[in-house]
């Protein structure tokens, strides 16, 4: 362990400030570009080092007091020390940089970031952990729990559920998901207002009078159901059978929902999507739009190939991980032109970023 004085040059994706010491990158959490800090090196690798912040010697004008008493110990939030407008600027820049560095996109068609209406009290669910009488979240970079009485970025109903859990005697060790809604098995976005803004943006981007929508990783049909009046047919695919069951509950004759693996369903030789793909390869004029909202790992090679083979006119890619989005866009750019990139701040105070990429088939 050794102390070093550093000047923070940037904030990397993931939320840590980046400085240089003798040419080596040093990552320091809870810092802002332009700050002079004292830090303790805690892990040293060949290419980089990691440090803990000891003292801010010259602070950024964008530094603010965190609202959460657990900030800096809890592993959830990374940006409560940064004013909200600057958080947005950092996230916008991180998306652009990832697309340039990883995606090799030269002129990234970035749109302004869509902010969250609520900077705190926005989460509609949290998962807390209980062990040996402690109920809370994991500490930063650790599997040890920190006892949490209230989470300031969570909605009032969620914190009320947390208080009720804490009041119980002898809470069993395990994981507890606390929600505002009563759909325990169905995935939904964390931030209701930004999720609605995302859906509205997709509706605006998709043209009218289309034939077929394939909504991959569709969940309960959050996007597809908002687009029903633009398509003759909507096919949703998701591995989560509970979400597919929810999607089917109020489905009309236009909608088909499949519980299965997206790659398997898109590439099955005996499926109706294969027939659709074959029809299009034979020169059909039927219009096709595909929406993908994959997990943080992004699209598999098989899904990327299937999308290229199906050749939709419009491809909407919703991502919660800019680096894997950038990788996938690089692999798809021979078939699709990137029309626009819109970051959305689904997760204020955290390092997470939601991104919508609008792609169109190259003519």
Verbal overview:
The chain is of the alpha/beta class and 363 residues long. It has helices at residues 84-101, 156-167, 192-205, 241-249, 262-267, 272-281, 301-310, 322-332; strands at 2-7, 10-11, 17-21, 24-28, 36-44, 48-58, 125-131, 134-138, 145-147, 174-179, 210-216, 231-238, 255-259, 288-292, 314-319, 336-344, 354-361. A seven-stranded mixed β-sheet has the order 13-12-11-14-15-17-16, with helices on both faces. It has a six-stranded mixed β-sheet with strand order 1-5-6-4-3-2, with no helix packed on it. The chain has a four-stranded antiparallel β-sheet with strand order 9-8-7-10, covered by helices on one side. Helix 4 (241-249) links the parallel strand 12 (231-238) and strand 13 (255-259). The chain is globular.
In summary, what is this structure?
The chain is an alpha/beta fold and about 375 residues long. The protein is built from eight helices and 17 strands.
List keywords for this structure.
about 375 residues; alpha/beta; 7-stranded mixed beta sheet; 8 helices; about 25% helix; globular
């Amino acid at each position: 362990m050794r102390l070093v004085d550093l000047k923070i040059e940037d904030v990397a994706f993931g939320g840590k400030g980046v400085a240089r010491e003798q040419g080596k990158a040093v990552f320091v959490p809870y810092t802002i570009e332009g700050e002079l800090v004292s830090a303790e090196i805690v892990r040293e690798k060949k290419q980089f080092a990691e440090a803990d912040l000891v003292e801010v010697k010259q602070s950024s004008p964008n530094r603010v007091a965190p609202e959460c008493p657990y900030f800096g110990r809890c592993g959830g939030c990374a940006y409560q020390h940064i004013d909200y407008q600057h958080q947005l600027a950092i996230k916008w820049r991180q998306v652009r940089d990832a697309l340039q560095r990883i995606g090799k996109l030269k002129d990234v068609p970035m749109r302004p970031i869509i902010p969250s209406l609520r900077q705190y009290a926005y989460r509609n669910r949290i998962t807390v952990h209980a062990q040996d009488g402690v109920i809370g979240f994991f500490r930063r970079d650790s599997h040890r729990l920190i006892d949490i009485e209230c989470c300031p970025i969570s909605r009032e109903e969620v914190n009320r559920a947390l208080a009720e859990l804490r009041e119980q005697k002898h809470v069993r060790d395990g994981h507890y998901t606390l929600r505002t809604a009563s759909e325990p098995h169905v995935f939904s976005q964390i931030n209701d207002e930004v999720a609605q803004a995302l859906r509205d943006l997709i509706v605006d981007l998709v043209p009218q009078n289309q034939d077929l929508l394939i909504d991959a990783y569709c969940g309960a049909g959050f996007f597809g159901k908002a687009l029903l009046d633009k398509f003759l047919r909507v096919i949703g695919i998701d591995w989560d059978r509970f979400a597919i069951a929810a999607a089917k509950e109020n489905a009309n004759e236009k909608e088909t929902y499949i519980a299965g693996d997206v790659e398997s369903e898109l590439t099955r030789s005996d499926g109706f999507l294969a027939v659709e793909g074959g029809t299009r390869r034979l020169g059909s004029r039927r219009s096709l739009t595909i929406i993908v909202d994959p997990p943080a790992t992004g699209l598999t090679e098989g899904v990327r190939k299937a999308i290229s083979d199906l050749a939709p006119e419009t491809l909407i890619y919703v991502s919660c991980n800019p680096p894997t989005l950038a990788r996938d866009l690089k692999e798809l750019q021979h078939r699709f032109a990137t029309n626009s990139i819109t970051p959305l701040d689904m997760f204020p105070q955290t390092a997470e970023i939601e991104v919508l990429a609008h792609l169109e088939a190259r003519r």
